[in-house]
Amino acid sequence: MKACVLYSGGKDSSLMGIILDQLGFDVELVTANFGVYDSFHPAQKSAESIGLKHKVLNLDISILEKAVDMIMEDGFPNDGIKYLHEAVVEEVANHYELVADGTRRDDKTPKLNRNQIRSLEDRKDIQYMNLDSFGYKTIKYLVNNLFELKHEKSNKDTSSDYEVEIRLLIDKKGGNSSDIFPEHYQTNVSGLKKQINRI
Amino acid sequence: MKACVLYSGGKDSSLMGIILDQLGFDVELVTANFGVYDSFHPAQKSAESIGLKHKVLNLDISILEKAVDMIMEDGFPNDGIKYLHEAVVEEVANHYELVADGTRRDDKTPKLNRNQIRSLEDRKDIQYMNLDSFGYKTIKYLVNNLFELKHEKSNKDTSSDYEVEIRLLIDKKGGNSSDIFPEHYQTNVSGLKKQINRI
Q1: pLDDT of residue A171
Q2: A195 touches chain B (CB under 8 A)
Q3: pLDDT band at A199 (very low <50, low <70, confident <90, very high)
Q4: Interchain contact A113–B (C-beta under 8 A)
Q5: Pairing outcome for strands B185-192 and A147-153
Q6: Are B199 and A196 a contacting pair at CB < 8 A?
Q7: How many CB pairs (< 8 A) connect A and B?
Q8: Average pLDDT over residues A156-175
């Protein structure tokens, strides 16, 4: 069965990809892009480093624009990113039997709640998966056990998060994205420590 | 890392065992027993059929007695089974770094909620896992893909569920367990359809 994992190149979505691959799904790691900037390259590189297929899903800029409007109005990114993530999930659900993301048990946002998950699965007749089975300690253990990691300052050439295109569009619209997003470090997956065996 | 999966021989706890095994944990499938009846044999057989270690955890009958008192008072098994499951989880958490069970996203009871999980992980300094990542459709797909299954009437020689010892103790105490538990069928795992490869 074909399974899509929404993919940033980070630890969580990489772990989700490996778990589904091990369980025998035909995994495609998918990074959404809205045409503002080719921010998918770091994710593409991470996907290659763990031996899984990668695809770019080109989505209409109007989705990103609505998210950016929300974020500029709020002065705070959470609700806009939540909106964006949900819109991306809805879109990929039209193309795959199973849709997964790397949201974890201890995450708050962006994350689909139980009711949103059931609604999505029923409306689109798909399966949805996230990392709700896993606490932060287990994910830390698995990630350190499985992956080579690269820790670096997050910017438009090191990150494939939604944040990259959001920031660029905010600045294009005359806003100041640095007021909204603090400078931060991020961890990308850059290889496998062990051989992964599929069922 | 040693991981314990609370194990009945059923589909869900078997899937949990396979996932942890694949992820590289040293898995022990553990069936609780309260000394009323050696109800662990079906689970032992299922564990062997999927190539994972099995252990019986002997627990004090007082835990079962409290659960049975609750069930006889309620005339309904849910709260007593919930109490029993939680007591068993607390006990195994003293012996393992990771404790898992086969409760699923769409299950209601017996199931630890998020607050209980966080409390358990903090108090016992362990990791806890369940099948919250997985919806019923995904579990059905995986189970049918991975396991040989045996569907049969549930009784004391085919089941390793908590129910077996609960029923026997209710009847011993002069109650009528058939009034509380309806006759039902159950599915035990009896083999693997594919070779499982560990990381």
Answers
A1: 97
A2: yes
A3: low
A4: no
A5: unpaired
A6: yes
A7: 77
A8: 96
How confident is the model at residue A169, as a pLDDT?
Answer: 98
Residues in chain B with pLDDT values less than 70: 199
CB contact under 8 A, A127 and B105: no
Q: What is the pLDDT of residue A21?
A: 95
Model confidence, pTM: 0.96
In this structure, what are the phi and psi dihedrals at residue A78, rounded to the nearest 5 degrees? Answer: -55, -55
Contact partners, residue B3, CB within 8 Å, separation at least 6: B20, B25, B26, B27, B28, B96, B97, B98, B99, B100
CA A148/CA B14 separation, integer angstroms = 30
Question: Chain A interface, mutation test: which of B14, B15, B21, B23, most A Cβ atoms within 10 Å?
Answer: B23
Residue in B6, B9, B8, B12 with CA at minimum distance from that of residue B136? B12
User: Beta strand A26-33 with A2-6: parallel, antiparallel or unpaired?
Assistant: parallel
Q: Are A13 and A3 in contact (CB under 8 A)?
A: no
What's the pLDDT at A190? 98
Tokens 């399966």, located at residue: A127
**pLDDT for res A195:** 84
What DSSP letter does each residue of chain A carry, written as one string? -EEEEE--SBHHHHHHHHHHHHTT-EEEEEEEE-SS--TTHHHHHHHHHTT-EEEEEE--HHHHHHHHHHHHHHTSSHHHHHHHHHHHHHHHTTT-SEEEEEEETT--SS---HHHHHHHHHHHT-EEEEETT--HHHHHHHHHHHEEEEEEE--TTT--SHHHHHHHHHHHTT--HHHHS---EEEEEEEESS-----
Confidence of residue A66 (pLDDT cuts 50, 70, 90): very high
- Residues found in chain A: 199
Interface test with A, best of B1, B124, B133 (most A CBs within 10 A): B133
Q: Chain B: nearest CA to A120, how far in angstroms?
A: 12
- Residues in A closer than 8 angstroms to B117, CB to CB, are 105, 135
Nearest CA-CA distance, residue B121 and chain A, Å = 9
